[in-house]
Amino acid sequence: MRAGTCMTTNELILAIETSCDETSVSIVRGGREVLVNLVSSQIETHEQFGGVVPEIASRQHVESITIIMEQAVREVGIELRDLSAIAVTQGPGLVGSLLVGIVAAKTLAMALDIPLIGTHHIAGHIYANQLVHELVYPSVALVVSGGHTELVALEREGQFRIIGRTRDDAVGEAYDKVARALQFPYPGGPHVDRLAAEAEDEIELPRAWLEPDSYDFSFSGLKSAVLAAVNQAKMKGQELNKPALARGFQASVIDVLVTKALRAVHAEGARQLLLCGGVAANRGLRAALADRCAAEGVPLLAPPMALCSDNAAMIGAAAHLKWKQGEFTALEMKAEPSFSLEGWSVRD
Ligand code: KG4
Ligand code: ZN
């Protein structure tokens, strides 16, 4: 099919996501209606290593991908020939993991002679919101995941401009490292979130604001402050007040994320703030953003929990942007571990 064709908008896209430790397949109609969204998590396998082991992740994707693809098609009760296009996460992510999804997607697209849409993982996280909300522009997205922390301005649909990003650890990565220091298993974010909510006291920790006009983030200093507190307690033989430390860590993270996100919303004249990524499941962050947005009259959107962490439905939602423009990907495409979000924007 030729690029530039104006496509119908009730297409059926089979989407595949294998960028990290979830094997996921979804079928999405018209970029909005999720007919099925199967997610097979490898967390139990990686838990024992305290983080994702890339080689093991790729092998597990190989074992699961065809089974999950078949199951998705069966559950929806369609024939493969009913599909309009195959979407797959092209990057960013672990190269070996991405490749498994990409080979499966290419094979299916070729066999069915339908378009292939290489999709950006972060665009997927942002457009997960479109599965449940009506989006208006301009808008600002706060992307918080295990691998990414970004503020993205969207002047119009599918146009991405990164205005801030982390200079060191991603916020989810900082959560996971802090959780590990507090002896919680991987992924530790939900444990720190729970502990912070239960805490009665709070240990004050620093905030990394960076330059006054910067939308960038830095979490490594904060993470080091937590590790220092843990070590100090150990050396002095004192019992560590884990909940108070978790609460102090979470308060620092949330304060910076919320303040910068709201500043970006006002500076960009955004009509909505879109929260997305695995850390968007954080109850403290959701509550703080909801309060600030309500106080400042900013509509806040966030996907339901199941669509915050990695899943293929969000890839189907983002791929719809390209489908509408008739912008397809050549079968020769490669996995792009450092794929550019801005470069993935739809054509003018
Ligand atoms: O988006 P995601 O599923 O994978 C990436 O693309 O990175 O995000 C996973 C990250 C992990 O670091 C996990 O600890 C974090 O999201 N996370 C949380 C919470 N739930 C998941 N972090 C803080 N609070 C939570 N409730
Ligand atoms: Zn993700």
TrEMBL record:
Functionally, this protein is described as follows:
Required for the formation of a threonylcarbamoyl group on adenosine at position 37 (t(6)A37) in tRNAs that read codons beginning with adenine. Is involved in the transfer of the threonylcarbamoyl moiety of threonylcarbamoyl-AMP (TC-AMP) to the N6 group of A37, together with TsaE and TsaB. TsaD likely plays a direct catalytic role in this reaction.
From the Swiss-Prot or TrEMBL record, state where the protein is found: Cytoplasm
Provide the organism lineage as a comma list: Bacteria, Bacillati, Bacillota, Bacilli, Bacillales
Catalytic reactions on record? L-threonylcarbamoyladenylate + adenosine(37) in tRNA = N(6)-L-threonylcarbamoyladenosine(37) in tRNA + AMP + H(+)
Q: Which PROSITE patterns match?
A: GLYCOPROTEASE (PS01016)
Locate the Gcp-like domain: which residues?
A: 33-316
In the Enzyme Commission scheme, what number(s) does this protein have?
2.3.1.234
Where is it mainly found? cytoplasm
In the record, biological process GO terms are: tRNA threonylcarbamoyladenosine modification
> Which family does the entry's similarity section mention?
Belongs to the KAE1 / TsaD family.
Q: What is this protein called?
A: tRNA N6-adenosine threonylcarbamoyltransferase
List of residues binding Fe cation = H121, H125, D310
